[in-house]
Write a structure and sequence with these properties.
The protein is of the alpha/beta class and 635 residues long. The chain is built from 17 helices and 35 strands. α3 links the parallel β2 and β3. α11 runs antiparallel to α13. The protein is globular and about 90 Å long.
């Protein structure tokens, strides 16, 4: 009896404490977007620490949520105490109203993305993400108090999504992450270890400025992983690739990771560009316990040069074919390059039937940059319409006297190129245009295109060094490398030339293309020569065009004619449809070039890089210009 009386006050205290705790939590249903403030009174908004929301919300509702979580519309601190929020049953409605004053990106752009900046600078410690979302917007959780988070299946994590969330120590990745972009966890100083399961695309600098991160493990399939996956990680010691890799970007895996001493490939790797690290003094060589068909440098990532269609290669191809047939890996950046690489490898080892199968596979594998594809889907646009809808260039500024410059044929370094390649013999005895075509065809035939291989390690970016490296290593070059070589061959013949980078409207789209423009004295104009595909483009009258003219013809709906011999490594033939209206149409929104053209210009890094862009567009690629006439000035 006495024991019962003693426990009664304790039970009463516990019950009262429970009431106090639940009093700080609320469950609310938003029946109409913008009405959250009718269910949560202004007198109670700063007392709620836990919240579950059901319903569809807009920018007005986000303004209130941010206020409750300690940050108002001007990003000033409030008395808000909201620390935990369950949004599992929340959906969004498009809303152009800004929920942060002066921040044009703080709007709800689509119904399937947690909006960019939504909880930026808020004191949120715990969140259950909406089941409806497919993506987390840029800086959505910048500088929050998040401690851990569980990511939903098939999620896209945009740039800087969790930037500066210093208390974030655990991220639970789903079975399949669709995409993870640059610097998602920059400044997340509590994160020590990251384990990812399967992932479609892992962007450049995905892991950067995370001072206590020691190890990264990717356990499952990787669709594509960019070069410079890791950068500026002072505590990183280990990177482990344990699953199947379909494709990688350029050579460098990691840069400025002074403690990195282990990179392990224990799964199967299709031909990849990876082959080096930079400013990682402890990292001498990768450990390969799996099977690598080809790497960017066999001394750093060892592989046996394929000579037969071995059982290992057969199994790798079978797995690769099954994976790219799946929805998750059917639209992955870089995979087409892997298929092309396999065509070359299979041809080299005499597996012509299999090579033909892969050539057909490449022709049918249609990659579209995912975020751009969503943009097109939502607004019923295509690449030609994107060009047509772009603003015009500015009027010519006659006061701008800056000139593009071209190395003289009398320059000793340029003369050396002419002699080294015996260019007069290659060019032949025809007229100027036929000589230009002959030199491009010779290059196309002598250095194959390898889109995933990047540049040969330790080779300077000039014609002679790149040619020697390709021959010594039996490797190819990407479109940039081929265009650098062709530019210098044309300069050596005394023709002004420069290489032009062609890019899409989406500056995060890594699939650009590089071509050469050369000045024809016979025609009195610039013309485009594409060594990757041994291609050039004419108008309906047979006049050869430069990229700017091709772009304008597309906008005006004028007829374009692709050269008859356009091909990829003599394995695939290109048509106007797939070369011009699918590939080049995407990549003619922005055009970039160095103002100086001479041997080794890119390696030296001294010349200004200009980007021609439509009026009002801010690409932030080199120095911007909207002056089309200036960009295409006569030499």
């Amino acid at each position: 009896m006495n024991d019962h009386n003693n426990t009664l006050p304790v039970l009463i205290i516990m019950a009262l404490l429970s009431v106090c705790i639940t009093a700080n939590g609320r469950n609310v249903t938003v029946k109409t977007p913008g009405t959250l403030n009718t269910t949560i009174k202004s007198s109670e908004k700063y007392n709620i620490s836990e919240l579950k929301i059901i319903g569809t919300i807009n920018s007005e509702d986000i303004i209130l949520l941010r206020d409750m979580a300690g940050c108002d519309v001007n990003e000033s601190r409030t008395k808000g105490r909201l620390r935990s929020i369950d949004m599992s049953e929340v959906t969004f409605v498009k809303d152009n109203t800004r929920f942060i004053e002066g921040n044009k990106n703080s709007t709800i752009t689509d119904t399937y993305t947690l909006p960019a900046y939504m909880f930026s600078n808020c004191n949120i410690e715990e969140i259950v993400l909406p089941q409806s979302i497919r993506a987390i917007g840029s800086r959505a959780f910048r500088n929050t108090a998040l401690k851990s988070i569980t990511l939903p299946e098939n999620i896209i994590i945009h740039n800087y999504a969790f930037q500066g969330s210093k208390q974030l120590s655990e991220v639970r990745f789903p079975v399949f992450t669709k995409e993870m972009w640059s610097e998602c966890f920059e400044g997340c100083t509590s994160m020590k270890s990251i384990t990812i399961n399967n992932i479609g695309l892992l962007g450049s600098r995905a892991f950067k400025n995370m001072e206590n991160l020691t190890d990264i493990t990717i356990k499952g399939v990787i669709g594509h992983v960019d070069g410079w996956m890791c950068r500026d990680l002072p505590s990183l010691k280990s990177i482990r690739f344990e699953g199947f890799i379909l494709n990688t970007g350029s050579s460098i895996i990691a840069e400025n990771c002074p403690q990195l001493s282990e990179i392990v490939f224990s799964g199967t790797c299709m031909p990849m560009g990876y082959g080096s690290v930079k400013e990682c003094p402890l990292m001498k060589k990768c450990t390969v316990t799996g099977y690598v068909i080809k790497s960017g440098d066999k001394n750093f990532i060892e592989y046996e040069e394929p000579v037969t269609f071995s059982k290992q290669m057969e199994n790798a191809c079978r797995t690769f074919e099954k994976l790219i047939a799946k929805k998750e890996y059917s639209n992955i950046f870089g995979v087409k390059n892997t298929i092309y690489d396999m065509v070359v490898i299979l041809t080299d080892i005499g597996e012509n039937q299999k090579a033909t199968q892969y050539a057909e596979l490449a022709a049918n594998y249609n990659y579209k940059e995912p975020r751009l594809a969503e943009k097109i889907l939502e607004s019923d646009m295509d690449f030609i319409k994107i060009l047509k809808d772009s603003k015009p260039y500015d009027a010519h500024d006659a006061s701008n006297t800056e000139r593009f410059t071209y190395a003289s044929a009398e320059d000793p370094k340029v003369k050396e190129i002419k002699d080294f390649f015996n260019l007069e013999h290659i060019a032949g005895n025809g007229d100027e245009i036929s000589k230009m075509k002959n030199i491009m065809k010779w290059l196309h035939d002598n250095i194959r295109h390898d889109g995933s291989g990047g540049f040969p390690p330790n080779a300077s970016r000039n014609a002679i060094d790149l040619y020697k490296a390709c021959k010594a290593r039996k490797c190819g070059l990407n479109s940039r490398g081929l265009s650098i070589v062709l530019t210098e061959l044309y300069l050596a013949m005394g023709w002004p030339a420069r290489f032009i980078t062609c890019q899409s409207v989406d500056t995060n789209d890594n699939e650009c293309h590089v071509v050469v423009v050369v000045w024809s004295r016979a025609l009195g104009k610039w013309i485009m020569m594409d060594p990757t595909y041994d291609a050039y483009v004419c108008d309906e009258n047979g006049l050869m065009l430069h990229p700017g003219e091709i772009r304008q013809h597309m906008i005006e709906g004028k007829k374009l004619v692709l050269s008859d011999n356009a091909n990829w490594n003599h394995k695939l033939i290109f048509t106007e449809k797939n070369y011009l209206y699918e590939y080049m149409a995407k990549n003619l929104y922005l055009l970039s070039a160095y103002i100086d053209s001479y041997p080794n210009v890119e390696s030296e890094g001294k010349s200004t890089y200009y980007t021609l862009q439509p009026e009002g567009f801010k690409a932030k690629i080199g120095t911007a210009t909207c002056d089309e006439e200036w960009f295409w000035q006569e030499p």
